[in-house]
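ARCHIVE CARD
Drawer: 12
Card no.: 0347
Subject: one protein chain, sequence and derived structure
Cross-reference: see card 0346
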Amino acid sequence: MNREVFSFASLNELFRSSPTVQLTDKDKYVIFSDLHMGNGGKTDDFVRNSAMFVQVLRDYYFPRGYTLVLNGDVEELQRFTLESIQQHWGSVYEVFELFAREDRLYRLIGNHDWDLLYMQNHSFDLLHSLNFEYNGNTLFVFHGHQTSRRYMKYNHALGLGLKYLSRPFGIHSSSVAHSSSKRFHTEKRVYQFSSRKKVLSIIGHTHRPLFESMSKVDTLKFEIERLCRKFPTAGESKQQRIEDRIRRHRDELNYVQRHEESAANRSSLYNANLVVPCMFNSGCVLGERGMTALEIRKGKIALIYWFDGSRGKKYLQDRNYKTKQLGDTTYYRAVMKKDSLSYIFSRIQLLS
């Protein structure tokens, strides 16, 4: 069985076995993935944004009535023991319990916390995937490692390698997220499956936030084109601002293209004339300055960037992003992209 056939069969079985939850315009969900919680030491990638993550959940999402979806790789069990993780990150589990006590928590399994399925010393129900039904359409939520035979069949052996080789030498997480070509192949397989099934898929795993199947390269190119069309009819003062924005986007595009492998720099990641908006990725909690999430609320889906203003003011200075401070903290919420689910599903149905 080749990789593409295995991927489709694996995702198809996962899709058919997923429990289904009805989604209405009154519901609120926030989706995070890839925390990779360790023991709090120097190789624990979660440390950087841990305080922000806890405060955002406790002071923003919980009091506003959101249901929390953790889409895999919450614990880094391929490098640390569950006991050491639980001992250090009690504050994180306490905020998870806040949501769980009100039936507002879904925990999905990933390849790095897969061993939880065989452990008794945790208090949360675990799912492999989850389907949301919205007006006759389906949002299919799963971690993303299920596209690969390597992770589905040999995950335990891979974990042993990380635990006994990476950790003793102080090496940080090494996974598909650190390989551009592996990210591309994972995303391409999810995209192809979702387009054929006419579903909206939400994954994690690759650590790269995606909205409507568009990578950062795609998004920057689309935005530059939009600004170029807007420029001729804008007033003189607005033209200067548009020119500045184009220059910033162009510089960012050049940077991304220099640091990504060629497979991820094609004009369309999926060799499609019309990109079907069927794949989303919530990104991760491990960014240098912040973390990303997907919010579903009032029939709309949004890509959210939470960042620490004391570590970077890029989005505070950019008027094109709506930012809001969380209380008197240095944490800010920025809405990167937003669209209505009805519009997205109509495009999926018409373009697939």
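Annotation on reverse: The chain has a mean pLDDT of 87. Residues 216-268 form one domain.
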